[in-house]
Amino acid sequence: MLTFALKRLLSTVPTLLVLVTLVFFLLRAAPGGPFDDERALPAEVQAQVAAAYHLDESPARQFGRYLAGLAQGNLGPSFQYPGRTVSELIAAGFPVSLQLGLCAMLLALLAGCGAGILAALRRGTLADHGLMTLAMAGVSIPNFVVAPLLILAFALALGWFPAGGWDGWRSAVLPVVALALPQVAYLARLTRTSMVEVMAQNYIRAARAKGLPQRWIVVRHALKPALMPVLSYLGPATAQIITGSVVVEQIFSIPGLGRHFVQGALNRDYTVVMGVVVFYGALIVLFNLAVDLLYGVLDPRVRGQ
Amino acid sequence: MSPRGLWAEAGRRLWRNRLAAASLVVVGLIALLCLAGPWLAPHSGEALDFDNIATPPALASGHWFGTDNVGRDLFARTLEGGRISLLVGLLATLVSVIIGVAYGAIAGYFGGRCDALMMRAVDILYALPFMFLVILLMVLFGRHFALVFVAIGAINWLDMARIVRGQTLTLRKREFVDAARLAGLPPLAIIRAHIVPNLLGVVIVCATLTVPQVILVESFLGFLGLGVQEPATSWGVLVNDGAADMEVAPWALLFPAGFLAVTLLCLNFLGDGLRDALDPHGR
After folding, report:
1. What span, in angstroms and rounded, lies between the C-alpha atoms of A18 and B91?
2. Which of A13, A47, A256, B3 is the most buried (most CB within 10 A)?
3. Measured CA distances, A36 to A40, A50, A268, B269 (Å)
């Protein structure tokens, strides 16, 4: 187990390195700088600004400086919000995004797996077909379409929930649902497929032949193997939820990290964009690692490979 | 009994799958509608109609889907957005097919260390937050139309490469490949003449499922304001515009959102149907 864990841990290093390098050099290769304003600054001011942000050094030295800062958790100053560092922006925005994302993930797991198990156990019935058609619709329709429609229906027409902002649980309902919906649908499909597969296994037939009640068979024997694919989907699901939260935060004007990212992208705030990409990238890579390790703990066959 | 070819058989199976067949028809109709847009729509999508600003859909005025907040005809704009969205979908998929097939076939055919190295690179790229990288590319290199699909396609080829490589691994052990090798054909010629044609089935399925993904990415970018720029438009841009003033003009949101959702749904159903039709043993 320890070698397995170490091997997994080591395999994340090149991914992170590629991520940081790619992001850094893409930013340097971009035409136009962060201070290219309509109003041209005097040459000496420009030089001062460039020197203050080390933009006058060679790319290699800048990269070294960036890596060194990264190692200390320092992502540099924001180019657009003077006096604030990227780390501060992340520290301010991330807790909100984290709450939003965790709630959405929880909802997706409960509703998605529930619907998938239900459909699998009632395979071929109207309920199964209905749920799976709904799930296909959910997979296909992106959150930035779902979110405005939810606002239109539940905030503007019915007035049940606020249309935006972030205070109190009522304001969280619509964004969480909008963020979770595609994942609910995907998990429902995934769970149904694997549950159907598991229920056709011989050991389930044996359990049935023993006369065990259906509920017991499902809970004690079928659930764990059927949910293993769900576990391995958690990594991609995190990535999806993080990406989705960028638009959902934008639509519901939630002061999370995703909004900083979009604002940074539109303002060409280099360090903020880079910082968020690196931060989220690292988060996704680490989460994938955690899922892999958990999988190894639960399924000993994986460790041997 | 007359012998039926692989493709005729697959076509028959696809047609019998009612959901997939209906999806094919619907997608075809939407595509035709979008293409015929300039001749069908009574108004141009760029003309500002100052007498009809944010008016609801009406047959009499010729604004069948209503107008937006500057008086542009939404029917024309929805179809125009559809042309861009579908075009980006097809072109970016083409880019991803070309890269994915070449990469996967080479890795699978040569095998060994070359394969291990190439697939390790794919694994690394897989773990990257790809949507963020596309956004980054759009931020950095401007928002040219061509760049949208090159960027999306260039990042979206990973699935294709994996699937193609897996299929190639089994193909290269087949007798006809041995025969070609013994006949002295160089490796790249074997890949071109014997491997790639046999990949057609999996590639078609994968490509069909890539199109909605790509349209989704493009709409996502358009929604954030990073995709195609005004006056050009796409469904994502229209959804964004519509969402901005949905209180006064909900139709500006509902029509493009509906077109986008239906197209994506049908393409996914079609992809699933194609997989069942072309690969009856799988799943």
Report:
1. 27
2. A256
3. 7, 12, 10, 47
Angle at alpha carbon of residue A46, lines to A44 and A52, rounded to 5° = 105
B interface toward A at CB cutoff 8 Å?
Answer: 124-125, 127-129, 131-133, 135-142, 212, 216, 219-220, 223-226, 236, 239-240, 242-243, 246-247, 250, 253, 257, 260-261, 264-265, 267-269, 272, 283
Task: Tell me whether residues B139 and A265 touch, CB distance under 8 A.
Answer: yes
Q: Given an 8 Å threshold on Cβ–Cβ distance, is A149 in contact with B253?
A: yes
The pTM score is: 0.80
**CB contacts, 8 Å: A30 with chain B:** 139-141
- DSSP, residue by residue, A187-209: HHHHHHHHHHHHHTSHHHHHHHH
**Residue in this structure with the two tokens 């991609």, named with its chain if needed:** A236
Cα distances from A183 to residues A104, A138, B4, B81, in angstroms, run: 9, 8, 41, 27
Helices A223-251 and B130-140 cross at an angle (nearest 10°) of 20
Please give the Cα distance from B223 to B243 (Å, whole number): 10
DSSP class of residue A128 equals H
Whether residue B135 has pLDDT greater than 70:
yes
User: Which of B135, B253, B264 has its CB closest to that of A265?
Assistant: B135
Regarding predicted confidence, which is higher, B173 or A78? B173
* CB within 8 Å: B136 and A243: no
How far B258 CA lies from chain A's nearest CA (Å)?
9
- Return the pLDDT at A110: 92
Nearest CA-CA distance, residue B8 and chain A, Å:
27
Dihedral, CA atoms, B228, B231, B234, B236, nearest 10 degrees? 80
Contacts of B97 (CB under 8 A, 6+ apart): B157, B160, B203, B207, B210
- Cα B214 from chain centroid (whole Å): 5
- By Cβ distance, the residue of A193, A239, A268 closest to B129 is A239
Q: Closest approach of chain A CAs to the CA of B180, in angstroms?
A: 35
- With 0-12 / 13-18 / 19 or more C-beta atoms within 10 angstroms meaning exposed / middle / buried, residue A179 is buried
State whether B264 and A140 contact (CB < 8 Å).
yes
Chain A residues within 8 A of B237 when measuring between CB atoms? none
Nearest residue of B to residue A146, measured between CA atoms = B257
Nearest to B171 by CA among B109, B215, B231: B109
- Name the 3-class secondary structure at A17: helix
d(CA B131, CA A265): 13
pLDDT tens-digit readout, A163-212: 777 777 777 888 998 899 889 999 998 899 888 888 888 888 888 898 88
Smallest CA–CA separation between A285 and chain B, in Å? 6
How far does chain B reach from its first CA to its final CA, in angstroms?
A: 29
Q: Sort A206 into a burial class: Cβ within 10 Å, 0-12 / 13-18 / 19+.
A: exposed
CB pairs under 8 A between A and B: 116
A305: pLDDT strictly greater than 60: no
A72 in helix, strand or coil? coil
